[in-house]
Design a protein that fits this description.
Layout: E1 5-8, H1 14-25, E2 29-34, H2 37-40, E3 48-51, H3 57-71, E4 76-78, H4 94-105, H5 107-117
Parallel strand pairs: 1-2, 1-4, 2-3
Helix pairs in contact: 3-5
Length: about 120
């Protein structure tokens, strides 16, 4: 069976770390990104790691180019990164909530990054 490859955003700790661990346990090659460099340093030695802010479109395009160059392909993308809005839900406008949701769900952002890598 060919090697399978996964990229997990916000993968240095918490749920992202568990996702990476589950893929690794299944024999997958794991590449994680995070904004926490210290947490990335604690990831297993056989994982690829990069400090990347997923809200930075230029940084994401660079990451996808690097993945394409080093791995040739990506089988699965786990868009785990998100942002936190610390406000009372009924007393805030919708804009911050959409911004928080779009950090992890913006397929348009990932599509544009993918196009730049080809």
């Amino acid at each position: 069976m060919p090697e399978r490859r996964v990229l997990v955003t916000a993968g240095a700790s918490g749920i992202g770390r568990a996702i990476g661990g589950a893929f690794a346990a299944g024999g997958w090659s794991v590449w994680v990104t995070d904004i926490d460099e210290a947490a990335l340093a604690t990831c297993p030695d056989d994982w690829r790691t990069d400090v990347v802010d997923v809200s930075d479109e230029t940084a994401m395009a660079g990451l996808f180019r690097k993945v394409s160059r080093d791995w040739g392909r990506l089988d699965t993308l786990c868009a785990n990164a998100g942002s936190l809005v610390r406000r009372q839900l009924l007393r805030t406008s919708i804009s911050p909530l959409f911004a928080a949701a779009s950090t992890s769900t913006s397929s348009e952002r990932y599509s544009r990054c993918k196009e730049r890598c080809q």
